[in-house]
Specification:
With 362 residues, this protein is α/β, with parallel strands linked by helices. Helix content is 27%, strand content 27%. Strands 3, 6, 7, 10, 11, 18 and 19 form a seven-stranded mixed beta sheet that branches. Strands 14-13-12-15-16-17 form a six-stranded parallel beta sheet, sandwiched between helices.
Amino acid sequence: MTSPAESFAQPTDDQTAAVPTMAAAIMQGAHHIEYGRIVKPTVLPGHVLIRVQANSVCGSDLHYWHEGRIGSAVVATAFTPGHEFAGVIAEGSGEPFGLPDGTLVAVDPAQPCGHCYWCHQGKHHLCPNMTFVGAPPVPGAMAEFIAVPFSSIHQVPAGFTATQAALLEPLGVAMHALDLAKMRPGTHLAILGAGTIGLYVLMLAQISGALSTAVIEPLAYRRQKALDLGATQVFEDVASYQASVRDTPERGADVVIEATTSPLGPRHATEVVRIGGKVVLVGIPDGDEFSLTGSLVRRKGLTIKLSRRMGNIYPRATEFVRSGRIDVNAIVTHTLPLSQVRQAFEMLADYQDNAIKVVLEP
């Protein structure tokens, strides 16, 4: 029986030279990613081979680009990133499961162990033994092919595009954040950060009973995108938001979703939320550290939750997209061939050309 880590293992270069190769993105540390060739994965029992058709660049991918790590996940050797992806079943690997070649599937990149205390409690997203596609050293999907356990795939309805299927993953993360907030109809919501997750939270909140949705975002083009997607108000910074609510009874938002990369994001969230309100921290801070003002969060009596991945959300996310309630493509600003992976990372890292979501197509 294979371990979760072995589920995504690829043959090593010291194996026979006859092993086929494939095009892929190769990251070797901070600010070092290139387009090259790696060994094509083998398909272990219980797995399927996916021909990748879309892989969107996530904010966590950019953390590896900026810092070469996220916490204990370190780019110590060359690896292939990418975890927001979809593709089609290939080379007959789906036949044991009744899936013909060409079947479009989304893939949950998180593989819990299934045996620990948290898995037995149904909290698979908190599994400390989790294997995660595209988190070093586990190879990701910015490649032509990837082999994954059958249990991780989700067949999408007819009419879905590969990009829609790939974006179910970040949509699920946004849904999980709102689940943690337990947002009620009539809620005044504030969102810090108008990147992928913040904008998906905005879209979901509008059909989940939010009375108002304020977005705080320093970049003008992202504020405009938030307005285009229905935000009630947008603000350049926390001070501007606070000035706008100073004379309201609540003097702040009922719920704040923090979805930035700033180490100041969590503190700003606690400043924006009203007394007795809720804060959900979704963003991954640069430098892997943040601090809060103890007196502020204590005197406000805040409920603060930290979001980790998501639960069994793919079926719900799929239905939101299938029904047309959420247009996941609305935030896609660029679609590039995988060969331009470096340009994609540089574009997002430097906020070039009004980039928000970049999708790579192998």
